[in-house]
Amino acid sequence: YKQYCLSKAVVSTQSTGADLEIKQEEPSSVAECADKKDHRMYNQMQELINKYVELSKQNPESDPSWQPLSKSGETKIFRKEEEVNNVMMDYLVATTVVEGVTAGEMAEVFHSKELKLKWDHTIEADKLLETLDEHCAVYHQILKRVWPTAQRDMVYASHKQKLDGDGHPTWIVCNVSCEHASTPEGISGYTRATIEVVLFCQTVCDKPNPTRNDIKCKIVYSASVNPGGWAPSSAVRAISQREYPKFLKKISSFAQDHVKKEEIKW
What we know:
This protein is an alpha+beta fold.
């Protein structure tokens, strides 16, 4: 099933050395962005961004509290259990590196409704409910049913933001569940899933006049999801571990093909 809807995980971290080092070109002011707007979900998005950027400084490669689960090429998945406010949290993290794509381009592929429908074939319908600003909007998404489970839907705000820092821009996309009067829970009999999904992207390039062969995008992908209804945690975790690499491979391949003939956009 789709990784958004059958994973119950919070993900955030960095790899080190030649693999992934998110602290490089670290944003100097996470809560500020060049195209800052005021809207009803802006403060919530800034709190989420601050949280995930701080968590991205953790190092699962050397921290014994993180358990490596799998590795496939550049993609690695880690797990960590931690008690937060007397609640046991199950953290997962997926990291990878994508050749020939900038952070801004990858963020756009993940954020854009039109592009998402081209690469994410688990979506049955995705309707724009409200535009909050140039980079934040509320959507109602219906997922294709996977028999014998109930069909899921979700209402979420998707926010894209460029972070301050040295070098080429770092971008982050946050997809967070919210309520909207036009689409109450239970509409048409769907089971409502809730999500907190973050894609953290960082461009790696050390040449003054680069070609696509000179650039890479380092990614940290995170998802905290309640699929609604009932699902055993062991099954959710197993599906998450299996689906994360598939998701990253799919979006990475689409992004590379989408931008290969375009001018580089940071």
